[in-house]
Design brief:
This protein is mainly α. Helices cover 63% and strands 4% of the residues. The chain has one domain: Four Helix Bundle (Hemerythrin (Met), subunit A). GO terms for molecular function: protein kinase activity.
């Protein structure tokens, strides 16, 4: 699916197969790493938003690139796709020496999607919470407990 509507509340934000594979690979450190992702991701979102306000496309590239890679590692494919679009657009703006005005809609969607993703990741790693996450199978046609 190319350029999905990232504002669609029905759009799954985490791929269960990637999430579970990463959890198994990381073992006991998984929850701590999710916490770091939340902290670092919050900083990256703030940095991207500040760069957007300043019209500084070059300042968007690295935090978007980092968030893209880290999000995909946890199966947060929707967030990874959004940050890839921001990164690619910011790189294009730098190459053409343009302000990143065209990225405003994407940047505005970043914080709500990041929060939604973190809610799902935290819920799925909390053994006391009933599993209601917005998670999909790799086939993409099964959703697990959409909110």
């Amino acid at each position: 699916m190319e350029n999905p509507d990232i504002t669609d509340p029905g759009l799954p934000v985490v791929d269960i197969e990637i999430f579970e594979k990463t959890r198994a690979t990381m073992g006991a450190g998984f929850i701590k790493i999710i916490t770091y992702f939340g902290e670092d991701g919050g900083k990256a979102v703030a940095e991207i938003e500040a760069a957007q306000r300043e019209g500084n496309a070059a300042r968007m590239v690295m935090p978007a690139h980092t968030m893209k890679s880290e999000a995909r590692q946890f199966g947060a494919m929707t967030l990874g796709d959004l940050t890839e679009r921001i990164e690619t657009g910011a790189r294009r703006c730098v190459e053409h020496q343009e302000a990143p005005d065209e990225l405003l809609v994407l940047v505005a969607a970043l914080k709500p999607l990041f929060r939604r993703t973190m809610e799902v990741l935290e819920r799925e790693t909390n053994p006391l919470v009933r599993r209601r996450g917005e998670i999909r199978s790799a086939a993409g046609n099964q959703s697990f407990g959409r909110i």
